[in-house]
Protein 1
Amino acid sequence: MQRKLYTEDELVRRCAQGDHDAFRVLYEQYAPRMLAYLMRYVNDRDTAQDLLQEGFIKVYTSISQFEHRGEGSLQSWLKVVMRNEALQYLRHSDALRESVDIDATPLSEEIPDAEDVELIPSDVLMQLLGELPDGYRTVFNLYVMEEKSHKEIANMLGIKERSSASQLVRAKALLTEKIKNWIKENKE
C-alpha cells in the first residue's frame, strides 16, 4: 500500500476533519521521532511507548485546536504534547522527588577535552544521559535541550527554582564523570 504524501498544513487540516488515513500518516511520520524524544525523559522503552500512545490520543482529540504557523510548527506542537505527557508521568510517579544522595554525586573540577567528547557516538551520549537519575535527567533536558529557564522548569515540575538549579549542577557533574569514565575505558 502506497503512503499518501501531504504537506504539513494539509495533513493537519485533514486530521482536523477526521480523516483517519491522514492521522495514520501523521502517526507513521512522527511516532519514531516522538518516541526518541520521550526516551530522553523516560529511560524505559515500554513506558515511553505507553506515553507515546497517550500523547497521540491527546493529539487526535485536540488537533482541531492546533494552529499551523508554518513548516515545523506541527513537530514543535507534538513535542510539547509528548513532553507534557512525560512530565505528568514523572510527577505522578514521584520519580522527580526520589531522594538522591547529593553529597555522593562528585563535583569534579576536571572537564573532559571537547575533542574527546566529540568522538563519543551520539547514541552513547544519549545512553549516558539516560543513566542519570530521573530528576537530574529531566532538569538537564528541559534546561539544556529545551532551553527553559529555572523558573519555567520549577513551574513545570512543581519544584523550587533552587532545586532546579541544584539538580542541573549535579546532572552536569554526574554526566561529566560518566563521560570521563567512558573516554578512559574506550581510548586506545
Protein 2
Amino acid sequence: MLYLSGRVLTAATGGKASIYKYYFVQQKVRNEPVLAPHRGRKIEVVELKAGDSRLMQLPRPASVIAARFRQGGRCLAGFVGDVFVGCLWFNLGPYREDEVRSVFVPEPVGLSCWDYDVYIEPQYRLGFAFLRLWDEANRVLVSQGVRWSISRISAFNPDSIKSHESMGAGRLGSAVYLCVGGAQLMLSTFAPFVHLSFNGGQEPVLRIRAQER
C-alpha cells in the first residue's frame, strides 16, 4: 500500500513528491568463499579507483561516482574481458545516501562497513556474478578486520530483498522518507526516530549497529 501510495503521489505531483521505505540489514563477512573454485572464474573482480576510465561503464552519473569517492567509497567491479558485469560499493565509515538526505553510520566502528549499490547487468543476473562480487568483497573486508556488512535495501524491491536473504542477511530496522519539494520527513526505528528538514538542511544521522546473532 505504501508503494502504491508513493506511485500515486509522485504521479499526482509531477515528480515533486515521493516516498521511500528502506529496510536496514546486516550480513556476516565470510572468511571462506561461497563459490567453488571453478565457479565464476571467468569474471575478474578488480577495485576501481577514482579516475579509472572503466568507471564510465557503470550505470551511474559521473557526479554521483565522484561524490562517493570523496566520502571514502570503494568500488569493486566485475568484468569478463573488457565487458562490464556488475559492481559493489562499500564504505568503511559513514555513508551519505544519494537517494534521500541521510547519513548512515555502521557500528561497531572498525568492525562494520556500509555496502550499497550492488548492481549486476541484466544478462548476468542468472549466473555467478553476484556471488563472485561478494566473495571478493568478503576477502577485502576480512583483510580490513571487518566482521559485518550493513546496508539499506528498498522495501519496494523484492529481488534485492531475496538476494540479500540468500546471503544470510538479517533485518535490523527500517525507515520511511516522505519527500515533497525541498522538504523531507523521516520516520525510523533508529534515533532520531523522527526528523524534518527543508531544502538541503541538516540531514538525519542514523547509527546502525550490527547485532551478534
Protein 3
Amino acid sequence: MEYVNFISETLIPRITEKEIVLDLFAGCGGLSLGFEAAGYKTIGYEMEPNAAETYRQNLNGNCTTVKLDTFFNYPDAQIIIGGPPCQPFSVGGHQLGMKDARDGFPIFIDAVRKLKPKVFMFENVRGLLYTNKWYFELIVEELKRLGYMVDYRLLNAVHFGVPQNRERLFVIGHKSQFQFPIREKIK
C-alpha cells in the first residue's frame, strides 16, 4: 500500500512548464503521465480508440485518435516523445524491422524534422539492439543529421523504483547535455 500511496502522490498531472509535449504512438499515455507529473502539457496521438480514450480519461492532455503518416501536420511543440510500435523489433515477433508495415520510425523522424523540438525521446524494445541493430543505427544517424546529439541506454524499470522487471531502450535527442538517471540501489 505504501507504493500505491507514493505513486498516487507523485504522478499527479499538473501544468507548470511552458513547453508543449507531443506524444506520438501515445497508447494509454504512460509516457505522457510522467511528463504531466513533471509539469508539462501533453498532446497525444494514438490510432487505437480505446487506448486514446484511456489517455483522455486519466490525463490533462488531449489524445486524438488517428493513424499517423508522414503527411501529418502537427501542432507546435518543443518536446517530442513516443513509443513507435515495437512489434517489428520484438524478439517475440518476426523481427521484420523496416519491412513491417507497423514501423513507426519514419513517422517519428518526420515529426522531429518538421517541428525541430528542443529535445525528443522515444522508447522501444531491446530487440532493436540485436537483429535490427543496423536499422537502429540508421535511425540514430538520421536524427544526428537533423542536428541532435543522441544518447541511448537499455534501462530496466525495476532499477528506478518501479515494481516491474522490464527492459526498454530509451533514446534521447538533445542539443546540449543529457545525463541518464542514476540507477537506484535495490534494498
Protein 4
Amino acid sequence: MPAPTLHPDLESILVTEAQILNRVQELGRRLKEIYGNEEFTVISIMNGAILFTADLLRQVDNAIRLDCIRTTSYGSTTESHGTPKVIHGLTLDVTGRHVLIVDDILDTGKTLSLIAGMVRGMKPASVRVCVLLDKKGRRQVPFEADLVGFEIPDRFVVGYGLDFAERYRNLPSIGVLKPERQKA
C-alpha cells in the first residue's frame, strides 16, 4: 500500500488506513472469541462510529442486530461542552440480549458512561464496549472499554468517522488537525 497522502488540514497522521484495517480485523477475531456463534446486538454511537461499526461488523459472521444512538457533546468545538445528551435513543429491545456498544473514541468517558448505564438499566444479558480510540489522558469519569483499537495521546484527531464541525469524517486515516483549522 502506498504511503498515505497528508491532507492539507492535517498536521500529521496518527493512525494509517492500513493500521486501522489490521486492527479492525483483530477486533473482529476477538469478538468471535467472546461471542462464539451467539447472536449479539450492536449499538453504534452516531455519527462518529459509523465507519468503524460498518467495518467491524463485516469481520464477524454472527447474527447481529444493529441499532444506533445519537448523542451530542462537542458541537462545533474541540472541547466537550459538559454533559452529553441522548438526542435519538434505541429502537430495539435489548432485554436478555448480549450488547456491544461501539464508539469512535473514549475521551472524557462521559458519553460512554451515560450510554452504558442506560443500556444496563434495560437488563441485557451482557454489556461490552468497543472503541476505536482511547484517549486516557482526557478521562474525567472512571470508565474503561472492553476492546480498544488504539490508545492515542491527547491530540485533536479527525478522520475515519471522527470530525470537527462535521468535516473530515471521510478521511481514510486518523490525523491530527492543524491548530489553525480547529476553529468553527
